[in-house]
Amino acid sequence: MSNLYYILTGLCEKRRITPYRMCRDTGIQPSVMTDLKMGRRQTVKAETAAKLADYFGVTVRDLLGAQEPIKVQPLPQELLKIELFGGEATDQQLEEVRQFAKFVKERDAGRP
User: Fold this and answer.
1) How far is CA 77 from the centre of its chain?
2) pLDDT per residue over 76-86, tens digit each?
3) Can you give the pTM of this predicted structure?
4) Which of 33, 62, 101, 109 is deepest in the core (most CB within 10 A)?
5) Which residues are CB-neighbours of 56 under 8 A, at least 6 positions away?
6) pLDDT (tens digit per residue) in 39-54
7) Average pLDDT for 22-33
8) What is the pLDDT of residue 75?
9) What's the CA gap between 19 and 23, in Å, rounded?
């Protein structure tokens, strides 16, 4: 497996999406991920790397394995509305989702 595969799957986990969803959202062929996983390729074309970096809110340098930690940008509020409510949501609804997520995080903090 390539280092890029681990980075991409880690970013997907942080966003709580599947690699297939990432491919679908970015227009990248799922076979690219398969090739990275199987070791048939170690990297991607520059334009693909740029598209993926933009999708995750990281730099291409971070995506391709720079030593500094990757900082994932939070989802913009409009994208969050689309992901959770299909595009239509009030600020109050989003706040309730945030409060619930905070509750679950605090509840599970002591669990293995």
Assistant:
1) 16
2) 677 777 777 77
3) 0.58
4) 33
5) 11, 15, 63, 72, 73
6) 899 889 999 999 999 9
7) 94
8) 62
9) 6
Confidence of residue 28 (pLDDT cuts 50, 70, 90): very high
Q: Which two tokens stand for residue 47?
A: 């334009």
How many Cβ atoms are within 10 Å of 9's Cβ, its own excluded? 17
Q: Which residues contact 60 (CB under 8 A, 6 or more apart)?
A: 46, 49, 50, 53
Q: How far apart are CA 59 and CA 41, in angstroms?
A: 21
Q: Per the structure block, which two tokens stand in for 27? A: 């227009």
Query: Which residue is listed with tokens 């509750």?
Result: 103
Q: Buried b vs exposed e over 80-93: b needs ≥16 C-beta within 10 Å?
A: ebeeeeeeebeeee
The token pair that represents 14 in the structure block: 């942080």
